[in-house]
Amino acid sequence: MKKIYLVVQKKDMVSALEELRDLGVVHVEHQKDLISTQIADLNERIKTLEEASNILAQYPKDDNQQACSNWRDIANTTIKLQSKADQLKDSMNKRKQLIAQWEDWGDFNLKDLRDLSKNGVYLTLAQFSVKKTVELPEGVMSEVIGIKAGIKRCVLISREAHDYAFETLELPAHSLSEMREMLRHDETELTLMENKLQAMTVYVNCLREAQSERRQSLEFEEVVTGMRDELGGKLTVLKGFLPAEEVEGFSQAAQKHRWGVVVEDVEEDDQPPTLLKNPKWVELIKPVLDIVEILPGYKEFDVSRIFLLFFSLFFAMLIGDAGYGMIFLILTVVFHFKKGKQVQNKAPFILSYWLNGLTILWGILTGTFFGQQWLPATVKPLLPWLNDAQNIQQFCFVVALIHLSIARIWSAVKKMPSITSLSDVGWLLIVWGMFFVANMFVLSKPFPSFGMYFFYLGIPLALFFMVEPKRLPKVIGLELVPFILNVISAGTDLVSYIRLFAVGLATVAVADATNAMAAQAPLAVAL
Predict the structure, then answer these.
(1) Which structural domain, as residue segments, surrounds residue 69?
(2) CA neighbours within 13 Å on the CB side: how many for 277?
(3) pLDDT computed for residue 360 by the predictor
(4) Cα–Cα distance measured from residue 239 to residue 233, given in angstroms and rounded to the nearest whole number
(5) Does a structural domain hold residue 7?
(6) Among 103-112, 161-170, 209-218, which range has the highest average pLDDT?
(7) C-beta separation of 198 from 59 below 8 A
(8) Which of 148, 174, 200 is the last residue of a domain?
(9) d(CA 212, CA 215)
């Protein structure tokens, strides 16, 4: 990346920014706070469009898309319809709860109950446990309406109003039949609202285009607001970054449009953007990297390629069953067929095909199809070597060695030409030495005679070049114990990869156990 300053006259600012936008190679860095009424207004419009688009996304999109002359009216109408629908749903839920609460009492006419009270006959509703004995005041009659779930529902009848010593029920605002009628009315209204919203889906593309236009306007307005004025406002200065390979073309455009341009190297305090240029096959892993939020900084290595390779291998080894891989593959095909048109980024589908395909391949190599024990003896693994426990543990250690070696080499390259890069070379040698130690302790393999040389060379390099040589006497006393612990950790890091073997073995064991339980199920049902 290169840092650039673009200087234009204030009167030419808008046309210069339009030309700059068409070039599409400059990442703008704002030099002032982005505070203006135009930005606030555009943000509000984008928010409205987003809300309307999200509402319509819940309904099947109409294939006959239409243009709209006033997107604001369409967006506001959509939001109002959804608000009304939400209110109806809330009202219906509350009404359903009331109906469920009162339907065991049966229907009743509230006017009749009020008329009885005016004529000196008081009806009070109460409910008790059938096991509970309730003493009623003198002159009060109890009529049982029904009993359900151990609860007795009663009507208390009296000639006088009483304050009972137990809890009584307050009559609802509407009778049961009225509540049911109101619920049916709400359901009809909700269907009408949803039909209107469905009809609005003819404007989905229109709203998206309006949203995209507002976003472009917002970006443009932010650039204008973030520019720095010079010479009493006669000149305006834009700061940004562009790829080094685009400098020549940008300079030619600047000369053509008579812009003042300064091109500088990126400094330590700058925060340039990261431009990633990966082949298409590497883009498969982008959905996973987005989930775990791994994005390399400007001065960091892009791990996408290595991450994809090792993630794919780990996924195949951990699932390790061709049968389950086929199930996941079929589910992906079905979901892709049903929802594929609604998803613009097809990378998640392709990644799923890739991972499940590798899982099936690993299952074929190891002869694992929904477990192993149920398979007939004639079914052989394509690569029997992988079914030997010691071999697969050895394979895990080799994977660990390659993985950790790449990390140390990258770290050393990043530190070059600093002499501290030799520390990572030392750690690389320690990792290789620990590889042979792990083989000796875990796999009972003889430790090679040359193995100690990895430690003889690696430990001094890692220790004495962990910092600049002139700083070493000051820090070595504090760093010695942590260094020893880190050497031990280098071995445990490598051995930890044996979990690939353990989890893969557990997957097969669980599949076999499930098969055994399924085989016994008919016998259990018969008994």
Answers:
(1) 34-100+178-226
(2) 2
(3) 92
(4) 16
(5) yes
(6) 209-218
(7) yes
(8) 174
(9) 5
Looking at this protein, which amino acid is placed at residue 85?
Answer: A
Number of domains, the chain: 5
* Helix/strand/coil for 125: strand
Distance in Å from the first CA to the final CA of the chain: 75
pTM, two decimal places: 0.58
**Rounded mean pLDDT of the chain?**
82
- Helix (H) or strand (E) segment spanning residue 8: strand 2-9
Q: Which residues have a Cβ under 8 Å from the Cβ of 47 and sit 6 or more positions away? A: none
- β-strands 228-230, 235-242 pairing: antiparallel
357 has pLDDT over 90: yes
Task: Extract the tokens encoding 135.
Answer: 């003493």
The tokens for 284 are 């498969």
| Same-domain status, 342 and 360 | yes
Give me 415's structure tokens: 């530190």
Report the share of the chain in percent with pLDDT over 70: 90
In a domain, 524, yes or no: no
Residues in the chain, total: 527
pLDDT in tens, 107-158: 777 787 778 877 888 888 888 877 777 778 777 888 788 888 788 888 888 8
- Measured CA to CA in angstroms, residue 256 lies from 4, 10, 152, 253, 259 at distances of 17, 18, 92, 5, 8
